[in-house]
Specification:
- The protein has six helices and five strands, in the order E-H-E-H-E-H-H-H-E-H-E.
- The protein is α/β, with parallel strands linked by helices and 162 residues long.
- It has a domain of 113 residues: Cobalt-precorrin-4 Transmethylase, domain 1 (3-Layer(aba) Sandwich), CATH 3.40.1010.
- The longest helix is centred in the middle third of the chain and has 14 residues.
């Protein structure tokens, strides 16, 4: 069977709809590609690593933290400068800046092996999610990672929205 990739962010979802979206998409493997796995405030506390892993376990969804797909703090700062220049907040950003895209491709994706990814998620995986926080996939590095996996492995990608 062919593996399908879905991407999901937490912004815009409430807890019930977030986990229902994963269930509806038939996700069996959840890849957290954040550097820091915590969320500020109570609204998105369900996406803090410990709570997230507990709930995914209840849903029989395997959890993996794939730090090698997480942007560095320096890359994040580059994007923040771009957001500030455009007067955008992280939660409402629609697109990534070109400087961020170039550095993410050079520093993360150039060294990322798609076939090793398949081994890490397991060959029994049918639907794998790539998770970060941004609402819109175009505003998040998960879109870049998903695109690389789709191109190199010929996988289908869908983006889950709130």
């Amino acid at each position: 069977m062919r593996i399908k990739i879905v991407t999901i962010g937490v912004y815009g979802f409430d807890e019930k709809r977030f986990f229902q979206a994963l269930v509806d998409a038939k996700v069996d493997t959840f890849c957290d590609i954040r550097l820091r796995r915590g969320m500020r405030g109570s609204e998105y506390a369900f996406a803090n690593s410990t709570k997230l892993q507990h709930k995914l376990g209840e849903l029989a969804i395997k959890y993996l933290h794939m730090k090698d797909l997480a942007p560095t703090q320096a890359m994040r700062e580059t994007q923040k400068l771009e957001d500030d220049k455009l007067g955008e907040a992280k939660r409402t950003r629609k697109f990534l800046g070109q400087t961020f895209i170039d550095s993410y491709k050079k520093e993360c994706l150039a060294h990322f092996d798609s076939h090793d990814f398949l081994e890490q998620i397991g060959y029994n995986t049918e639907v794998v999610s790539l998770f970060c926080v941004e609402r819109d996939y175009e505003a998040c590095h998960r879109s870049l990672a998903a695109k690389k996996l789709a191109q190199e492995l010929g996988l289908q990608v869908a983006h889950l929205h709130p």
